[in-house]
Specification:
Blueprint (H helix, E strand, L loop, with lengths): L1 E3 L19 H10 L1 E5 L4 E3 L7 E7 L1 E7 L5 E8 L3 E2 L1 H6 L6 E4 L3 E7 H10 L1 H27 L2 H15 L17 H8 L3 H13 L3 E4 L2 E4 L2 H8 L4
Helix pairs in contact: 3-4, 5-6, 5-8, 6-7
Length: 236
């Protein structure tokens, strides 16, 4: 981890984060109190069960939020990327963190201390509404995932996960937006699906054979989105 200076208003995350709702005086308060750090791929930003001392805003990069069971197996709860905040749910609830944040690519994140963050929430209703909207969305995603784990087969969940990754990490290329721009190990995909890595490898190979997907190096390209949607909705 390397400390650095990051000007909020020059940051690519500024216009898509809650900071865009802040007054100049509130931005001055954030700038005076925050610390920014550069994390290498694989580094941890925070750990499960720690007490949140503030929140993190992702300026650049992608982070996975994971929980690890007693056997050491990870379960990926969600991803966070530019403009998103980490740790605010636990901070608002005054509870320990429920996941560990791990960078899956080089990441810049700014830490805003608890006191300043709570003050801005109290002062600015737009910030509070933005956070409430984010919390509601996360709750909806969790409810859908619980339903999926309970009702869908592994094959259906793999198709669903590929569609989720494509929607979340669609390529920026104007020529081809069918590529999932993020490179995830097969183990990470298995940890999203909730199954063994070998099962995911077998099903990805099957999807490739029937031309639902293709591989471009380590990235996955969606060839037949409608076909994946049909498989993912088979139990519905």
């Amino acid at each position: 981890m390397q400390k650095l200076y990051q000007d909020c208003e020059e940051c690519g995350a500024y216009n898509i984060s809650i900071f865009s709702n802040c007054t100049p005086e509130q931005m001055d308060k954030i700038t005076a109190s925050k610390t920014c750090s550069h994390y290498k791929k694989g580094q941890h930003i925070f750990y499960v069960d720690n007490i949140p001392l503030g929140v993190y805003c992702i300026c650049k990069g992608i982070v996975k939020l994971v929980k690890t069971n007693n056997d050491g197996k990870e379960q990926i709860l969600r991803f966070a990327q530019q403009g998103e905040f980490l740790g605010y749910r636990a901070l608002i609830a005054d509870e320990p963190l429920v996941s560990t944040a791990i960078c899956i690519e080089d990441t810049i994140a700014c830490f805003i201390p608890r006191k300043q963050f709570i003050e801005i929430m109290d002062e600015n209703s737009s910030v509070s509404k933005h956070l409430l909207k984010s919390l509601s969305h996360e709750l909806g995603v969790v409810e859908e995932r619980v339903q999926s784990m309970a009702q869908k087969s592994v094959r259906e969940r793999v198709a669903e996960t590929l569609l989720f990754l494509h929607a979340t990490f669609k390529s920026d290329s104007k020529q081809d937006d069918s590529v999932i721009s993020i490179t995830l190990p097969r183990e990470d995909i298995a940890n999203i699906v909730g199954t063994a890595t070998e099962t995911v490898i077998r099903l990805l190979s099957e999807f490739k054979t029937v031309k639902l997907i293709a591989f471009e190096g380590k990235k996955i390209k969606i060839l037949n989105k409608a076909g994946l949607e049909k498989i993912s909705n088979a139990s519905l």
